[in-house]
Every structure is written in structure tokens, then in C-alpha cells.
Specification:
heterodimer; A: four-stranded antiparallel beta sheet; 0% helix; B: 127 residues; seven-stranded mixed beta sheet; four-stranded antiparallel beta sheet
């Protein structure tokens, strides 16, 4: 099974900061990568699919990139509403696995 | 409004059974693969099972194979998860989720990304 490791586990940043969350795969991925946002007590919400495609309705300050074993989620200008835990997910038609999550807080 | 609403969670003893339901609305339910995903503080998010739009194909995580059964009733726009021989390790919040790919029900395989989630239902397995 492919293991997904996110870093950092916790991130504290100021409003307006550029924020980057990294997701590393245990082996090179020939599959897709997705990112989800989860707020306390709520279900995850799809932000990015196919590594870099923005889901409909998601603010353009969110972007995804990467290939092989290293992927990133970037928030270009952090907003108070972005406080949440973020998860990466590798997926193909036969399996998927999630990272352990990165908790994003406002300084 | 497009939404998924789970129900059926609760407290059950080890070895017991529980049936979860997920009512879908606001979209053509039969066009999509549907999934169950569970979440625990310790293991995080884990995919559990999936079923094709017409119900003709199913797939399971190894950890639940032989104990859980996914099914759907497209006349009622409802997804189910029958959970038997429950163990303490099955304790989790269970989410139903819609597959990202809209292929009119003809996708041979799911995309395995999830573009819509229910609010979740808690399952606790304990004596």
C-alpha cells in the first residue's frame, strides 16, 4: 500500500500569508492526487483533484502541484475561513489512501 | 439542494450488526459510483467500500471484506452498508461519499476521489 505523509502536522500562520502544505508518497505515484479541507465537526470537502484542478466553487487562492512522490497545496493569501485540517489523498480506480492531516491555525 | 444524509449509527456490542443508510438528493443518484469512508482519530480517513451506479459491481477494503456488504436502492436514492461481526476497530464516523466521476452510470471503475460527502454517522463498537 502507498503511504501518504503530510508535513507539517500543525501549521500556524498569519492572515495574508502564503501557506504551503507538503504531501509525500512512499513510492512514485502514477495516479492522481486530491486535497480536502475539513472543518471541526464537518465532513471533508474536495478542494483539488487530479493534482492541480480546482473543484468548482473553491476560491482561487487554493492551488495544487507536484508529481512523482512530492505534492503541495498552496494557499496564496491565508484567510480566517481557511482554519481547518487539510488532507491529501492519492487515488486511482483500484485504491486510495489519505495523509494523516495538517491542522492549519491562524496566529 | 445536493446532499447526502447518513443514518443508522449507534452503539453495538462486539460481534453485533448494524445497517447504515445514506439518503441522496439533488442529483441523479444512479449515475454515480458511491462510497463509504470512515474516520477515526487514530487511523484518520480510510476508504471502506464502493458500489457502481447500477449496483452491479462492488469493492471492499481488505479490513472489512466478508463482514460488510454495500448495496443501493436507486428507486429510493439510498445507499446502504450492512456491517456484521463488528469489532472494536470498526469504531469510527462513517461517511457516505459520491464518486467524483459522472459517467452516466457507465464507469466500469470508480475514480476514487470524492466530491460530495454526508455529515457522517458515528458507530461505536463496545461492550
Amino acid at each position: 500500500d502507498i503511504q501518504m505523509t503530510q508535513s507539517p502536522s500543525t501549521l500556524s500562520a498569519s492572515v495574508g500569508d502564503r501557506v504551503t502544505i507538503t504531501c509525500r508518497a512512499s513510492q512514485s505515484l502514477n495516479t492522481w492526487l486530491a486535497w480536502y479541507q475539513q472543518k471541526p465537526g464537518k465532513a471533508p470537502k474536495l478542494l483539488i483533484y487530479m493534482t492541480s484542478s480546482l473543484e468548482s466553487g473553491v476560491p482561487s487562492r487554493f492551488s495544487g502541484s507536484g508529481s512523482g512522490t512530492e505534492f503541495t497545496l498552496t494557499i496564496s493569501s491565508l484567510q480566517p475561513d481557511d482554519v481547518a485540517t487539510y488532507y491529501c489523498q492519492h487515488y486511482n480506480s483500484y485504491s486510495c489512501s489519505f495523509g494523516q492531516g495538517t491542522k492549519l491555525e491562524i496566529k | 439542494e445536493v446532499q447526502l444524509v447518513e443514518s443508522g449509527g449507534g452503539l453495538v456490542q462486539p460481534g453485533g450488526s448494524l445497517r447504515l443508510s445514506c439518503a441522496a438528493s439533488g442529483f441523479t443518484f444512479s449515475r454515480y459510483w458511491m462510497h463509504w469512508v470512515r474516520q477515526t482519530p487514530g487511523k484518520g480517513l480510510v476508504w471502506v467500500s464502493a458500489i457502481k451506479g447500477d449496483g452491479s459491481s462492488t469493492t471492499y477494503a481488505d479490513s472489512v471484506k466478508g463482514r460488510f456488504t454495500i448495496s443501493r436502492d436507486n428507486t429510493k436514492n439510498t445507499l446502504y452498508l450492512q456491517m456484521n461481526s463488528l469489532r472494536a476497530g470498526d469504531t469510527a464516523v462513517y461517511y457516505c461519499a459520491r464518486d467524483w466521476a459522472d459517467c452516466g452510470g457507465d464507469c466500469y471503475l470508480p475514480a476514487m476521489a470524492f466530491d460530495m460527502w454526508g455529515q457522517g454517522t458515528m458507530v461505536t463498537v463496545s461492550s
